[in-house]
Amino acid sequence: MNTLHFKYAVEIEKTRSITQAAENLYMAQPNLSKAIKELENTLGITIFKRTSKGVIPTEQGIRFLECAKQILIQIDSMEGIHSPEKNQRQRMRISASRSDYIAAAFGEFAAGLENNVNIDLYLHETNALNTISNVREHGFELGVVRFRKLYEKYFLDYIAEKNLDFQPLWEFEAAALMAENSPLALSDKLTCEELSETSVEIVYGDSFIPYLSPNLNSSPVLEKEKNICRRICVFDRSSGYEMLSAVPDSFMLTSPMSQDNLKKHGFIQRKCEFHENKYCDLLIYAKNHRLTEAEIDFINIVYKYRNEAAFEELI
Questions:
Q1: Beta strand segments in the chain, E
Q2: Which of 14, 128, 218, 254 allows an S-S link to 222, with CB 3.0 to 4.6 Å?
Q3: Cβ neighbours of residue 65 under 8 Å, at least 6 residues apart?
Q4: Residue 124 in contact with residue 260, Cβ under 8 Å?
Q5: Cβ proximity of 280 and 147 under 8 Å
Q6: Burial per residue of 126-165, b for 16 or more beta-carbon CB atoms within 10 angstroms, e otherwise
Q7: Considering only CA atoms, which of 219, 205, 206, 209 is closest in space to residue 275?
Q8: Nearest Cα to Cα of residue 144 among 206, 99, 203
Q9: Stretch 126-142: mean pLDDT
Q10: CA distances from 36 to 27, 71, 99 (A)
């Protein structure tokens, strides 16, 4: 069995197109189709089917692709053992919720590296499900998953299903983040009704959780049908912060931020009175993963920034 064909199949799954996958792999489309056919014949299964949404894996194909991704990661690790060039260059890949304290910790960790350290650092800010996928299937060593406490069983079951370990990182009440001159700042503690009457909520557009009802996927501000709230969907923190600065009466529900970071961005935060206003951040990693010295250093810095932000929550 040619493991190079595993790489071909993974690329097709990623692009949902044999034509695009062939282009990305710098090979002719007929050759790619032939390679996948040979792989399917060897395995005795059909890996992909054509649909109106593109080329997608079959049920058996999904199981095969999960195994193939793990094998490719292990091959990459084995190559690093005997390759001096790969062995000398370190990598640390973190996938995390879009959170100010994680980004601040990553920045301090990167700034503290000695000049002679040969390392590539990756920080991928994304949603919880993508983070789990990154750690399980795409070679990321660490992940930080954020979810409402309301969904805890769903996520713990899903993390266990993906054969990952975790440790609690932070449990907090979401705060409303807003510009310093926002009229919402006049209230020390905000309710859903206050936020929904005239405000604009900035949310991450990929936060929808499959298999949960639309009502459970809604923002706490919109959980009651009578609440009306305009919404702007963004996909990264910088865009969200731009909206908070530019759009009057806008707010974003976030983990508490330290005073230093609030001042840096020109924001303030207010406590909120919501039903089930409890959120969790979990640190996740592959089972049997042994933390490196660099990873331990990073985690310690994360705890430092978490403690700074948590203290502000009490003020």
A1: 48-51, 54-57, 90-96, 119-125, 142-148, 164-172, 175-179, 189-191, 200-204, 230-234, 250-254, 267-273, 279-286
A2: 218
A3: 9, 10, 13, 47, 57
A4: no
A5: yes
A6: bbbbbbbbbbbbbbbbbbbbbbbebbeeebeebbeebebe
A7: 219
A8: 99
A9: 91
A10: 13, 17, 40
Distance, CA of 146 to CA of 100 (rounded, Å): 13
Would you give the DSSP letter of residue 224?
S
> Tokens 């203290």 correspond to what residue?
311
Q: Tell me if residue 93 falls in helix, strand or coil.
A: strand
Lowest pLDDT segment from 64-73, 74-83, 123-132 = 74-83
Instruction: Check if the beta carbon of residue 149 is closer than 8 Å to that of residue 170.
Output: no
Q: What is d(CA 114, CA 45) in angstroms, rounded to the nearest whole number?
A: 50
Tokens of 47: 């890996």
Q: Are 191 and 220 in contact (CB under 8 A)?
A: no
How far separated are the first and last CA of the chain, in Å rounded? Answer: 62
C-beta atoms surrounding 85 within 10 Å: 8
How many of the other CB atoms lie within 10 Å of CB of 222? 18
d(CA 144, CA 167): 10
Contact 284, 131 (CB under 8 A): yes
Q: How far is CA 306 from CA 9, 101, 123, 184, 315, in A?
A: 40, 6, 17, 25, 15
Whether residue 32 contacts residue 21, with contact meaning beta carbons closer than 8 Å, is answered with yes
What's the longest Cα–Cα distance across the chain?
68
**What is the reported pLDDT for 229?**
65
Residue partners of 202: CB distance under 8 A and separation at least 6: 231, 232, 234, 240, 243, 244, 247, 250, 251, 252
pTM: 0.69
Tens of pLDDT, residue by residue over 95-111, are 999 999 999 999 999 99
